[in-house]
Amino acid sequence: HLATWRGSPELLATASLVVSELVTNAVLYGYGAATLRLVRDADGLVIEVADRSAVLPAPRVTHDESEIGRGLHIIEAVSNGWGVSPEPGGDGTGGKVVWCRLAWT
Fold this sequence. Notes:
Low-confidence stretches: none
Structural class: alpha+beta
Strand content: 25-35%
Order of helices and strands: HEEHEE
Distance between the termini: 15 Å
Helix content: 25-40%
Mean pLDDT: 88
Oligomer: single chain
Strand order of the largest sheet: 1-2-4-3
Radius of gyration: 14 Å
Number of strands: 4
Shape: globular
């Protein structure tokens, strides 16, 4: 979609990295099927990944030897902001959407 929206090569690379990190987190730590949504608006690109887990993500403290736990730090470093929105589920299980915003370049 980003190529058809004429995003720059830098935006495509950054968005690919962010999608990889968010989807990996949803698969490893979420529950149920993950969904991806891309939204282009006046302020840039919003990338959202939803899953059915009510557990909210938080950046981990990592060490030089850590092999996991850097995803949210990476997203924070390359984006113009990120966050999480809890979403109540109709069946009482809840869920969340983890999002980040990238500048349109």
